[in-house]
Specification:
alpha/beta, about 30% helix, six-stranded mixed β-sheet, about 425 residues, 2 domains, Purple Acid Phosphatase, chain A, domain 2
Length: about 425
């Protein structure tokens, strides 16, 4: 029998981007949610290292959040320090008897470089049982027509390694990868336990179909890339991240897996680390009826914020992450009213740190075009919210200027606003959830 822990997508150094208060969990060191991920990572490494008779710890990629395809920034300095601290805890408690196998994902990698942030604080000689495989190792294996695996004859275990590789980017890559994957087919003539370790997903075309299927007959397939802990087939599992990164993941399970394989029989125990999340991570729906005035909407929003008013004020360990979803028939004027109102409420909440225990407030506005079947393009959105944009925007500007008793040229402001809106619509579909 062998005993394995399967973990992935730690995303050390992850920082919420939009709509967060500029408060530190540790002064001049790390931000609140970032620090929570560090703390949990160390707890998990401690817990894992105390599992009796553990043979292998497998990490399926994305140890760091940065760098990535869309960000060339290195991981924050604390992220690298906490990685080293986690490794020290693990190898000290296991007395360097347990193997740690890591493959690169699509995060935490400087594209095209031999050197990666994973290695910046790591002296390989310190950790003789740390086995680290980069994307470069994969491309070298393909170029040399060799398998990429790791074998432990004394334990009768063989690991087949699939670091992240966007093989579908070019036709020549895909052809070469299709051919090479056959070298990762287990030998059926021995009694080894065969385990695949991969970072990728069928959903975005980064996991090869033969790894995703049961074609190769692996005894277990440890997957990273998707952030929810789940079983995808009889022996294919994603362990997920340790905590939800964004509101899309708020209702998924995250954690890690204890895996025992005895005579080719799997026994899986799921450990849910998202249950250790101390802060509220909540999506709040608001009905934005055309009949609602700004005062009506503000009353609804303020009522939803009441549970997050605390005598103790802001606490970086428990401060809530909130997303408001406004749904209804959203006119252009109503859209601007909501954005203006939410910006004010967020500013009020963050400026009163002795009152509101809130880390993040973001919002999204869904007009009726969002529910149209099979089409949420910007063109369709324009059809709905821009039927009479000039008149609606002008009405909104007049209302705001009247409230603030300001003297400006309404027609000129309307012209500026419409130009800004048209530019913004070009990028609406690119906006990502955070």
């Amino acid at each position: 029998m062998i005993k394995i822990v399967h973990i992935s997508d730690s995303h050390l150094g992850y920082r919420t981007r939009r709509g967060t208060t500029n408060k530190w969990a540790v002064q001049n060191y790390s931000k609140p949610y970032e620090q929570e991920i560090y703390d949990l990572f160390l707890k998990v490494m401690e817990d894992i290292s105390k599992i009796k008779d553990l043979d292998f710890l497998i990490h399926c990629g994305d140890m760091f959040h940065n760098p990535s395809l869309h960000s060339s920034y290195p991981p924050p300095e604390p992220a690298r320090r906490f990685l080293k601290e986690g490794l020290d805890i693990f190898f000290k408690n296991t007395k360097n008897q347990t193997h740690f196998i890591y493959i690169e994902g699509n995060h935490g990698v400087f594209r095209g470089y031999e050197y990666t942030p994973f290695e910046s604080h790591i002296q390989k000689d310190e950790y003789p049982n740390l086995h680290y495989f980069k994307g470069r190792d994969l491309t070298n294996a393909i170029n040399n027509n060799q398998p990429l695996n790791l074998e432990f004859p004394s334990k009768k275990v063989r690991f087949y390694l699939f670091p992240f590789f966007e093989f579908k980017n070019f036709e020549i890559y895909e052809a070469a990868y299709d051919k090479w994957v056959e070298l990762q087919r287990p030998n059926k003539n021995d009694d080894f336990i065969n385990i695949a370790v991969a970072h990728g997903s069928i959903a975005d075309g980064t996991l090869h179909r033969k790894v995703n299927s049961d074609d190769f007959g692996y005894d277990y397939v440890a997957l990273g890339h998707e952030h929810g802990l789940k079983k995808v087939s009889k022996n294919h599992y994603y362990s997920g991240s340790l905590l939800p990164m964004n509101f899309k993941e708020a209702y998924e399970k995250q954690g890690y897996l204890k895996v025992e394989i005895d005579n080719k029989i799997l026994n899986i125990e799921e450990i849910y680390t998202n249950e250790l999340l101390k802060r509220t991570f909540e999506i709040i729906p608001i009905d934005a009826s055309p009949q609602h005035t700004s005062a009506d909407l503000e009353a609804l929003i303020r009522n939803e914020l009441k549970p997050f008013i605390s005598d103790e004020g802001f606490d970086p360990k428990t401060a809530a992450r909130l997303k408001f979803n406004f749904k209804g028939e959203i006119t252009f004027k109503k859209n601007w009213q909501i954005n203006d109102l939410m910006a004010k409420i967020r500013s009020d909440s963050f400026s009163q740190s002795d009152k509101f225990n809130i880390l993040q407030i973001i919002w999204k506005i869904f007009d009726r075009s969002e529910d149209a079947e099979n089409d949420i393009s910007t063109g369709l959105i324009q059809d709905y919210i821009l039927e009479h944009p000039d008149e609606e925007f002008k009405s909104f500007v007049k209302e705001k200027l009247t409230e603030e008793k300001s003297q400006f040229d309404v027609d000129k402001l309307t012209q500026f606003g419409m130009n800004a809106l048209k530019n913004a619509l070009k990028f609406m579909e690119r906006e990502k959830e955070v």
